[in-house]
Amino acid sequence: MAMRQLFLGWREVVEGCFLVALGIAFLQAGDLTIGATAGLARITQIHSGWSFGLLFWLINLPFYLLGYLQLGAHFTIRSFIAVCLLSLMSEALAMGLTIAIHPLLAAVAAGACIGFGLVIMFRSNASLGGFNVLALFLQKRFAIPAGRTMLWSDALILVLALTAIDWHNVLWSLLVVWIMASMVGRYHDRSALDRFRLTAKKADATSDSSRQSVTAER
């Protein structure tokens, strides 16, 4: 049973990484960008010509300390492996996949793929480092929704994107951010609330059972 749970957990990480890598491919096809460390990597890629996978891996390195100190070694190790997987998958898709697509369709596809991929990874206790770690830390410590943190940080990165891509593509990129943050806010934050409610119900049921046992003994 333990091995099966381990396999299913890592399968979700791989699935989440693939969806995000596919979303990155749509971003590149539509000449769009996104926020957080992926956005920084994309902007730096445009300016420098370096590969996205390498830049994404390098930019995420400083955030592992925050993840280790605030979210634990298990989460940090899973996130590090996930970042490595995404870097490799994005490089593989860039070499083997050619997409011709309108920026509007690219924005919708990228936002949906990246948002759903992040939800899968968050639920498997992993992330893609960077601002995702910051978002989970703020949600855990201060109950600030992860989707809200990601939305505001992504908006700041998109302002910086004006130095790399045309302004109308930045507007399309805003649509990517909105779709992604909406999916994370709707599905990840709701799942966390549902787990809290389920835990509370179990605690109440246990308390009621204990009171009934005490009454019966009397």
Q: Can you characterise this structure?
A:
This protein has 218 residues and is an all-alpha fold. The chain has nine helices and no strands. The protein has helices at residues 2-29, 36-48, 52-60, 63-71, 73-96, 103-123, 131-142, 146-161, 167-217. Helix 1 packs across helix 5 (73-96) and helix 8 (146-161) packs antiparallel against helix 9. The protein is globular. 42% of the residues are buried. Residues 190-204 have low confidence and may be disordered.
What is the total domain count? 1
User: What structural category characterises the helix and strand content?
Assistant: mainly alpha
Number of helices: 9
Query: Helical content, roughly?
Result: over 70%
User: What is Rg?
Assistant: 20 Å
* Percentage beta strand: under 5%
Q: Which parts are unreliable, with pLDDT below 50 for 5 consecutive residues or more?
A: 190-204
The succession of helices and strands, N to C, reads HHHHHHHHH
Instruction: Give the termini distance in whole angstroms.
Output: 41 Å
How many distinct beta strands? 0
User: Residue-averaged pLDDT, rounded?
Assistant: 78
Shape: globular
Q: What kind of sheet is the major sheet?
A: none
Notable features of this structure?
globular; mainly alpha
Write the layout of secondary structure elements.
Blueprint: H1 2-29, H2 36-48, H3 52-60, H4 63-71, H5 73-96, H6 103-123, H7 131-142, H8 146-161, H9 167-217
Helix pairs in contact: 1-5, 1-6, 2-3, 2-8, 3-5, 4-5, 4-7, 6-9, 7-8, 8-9
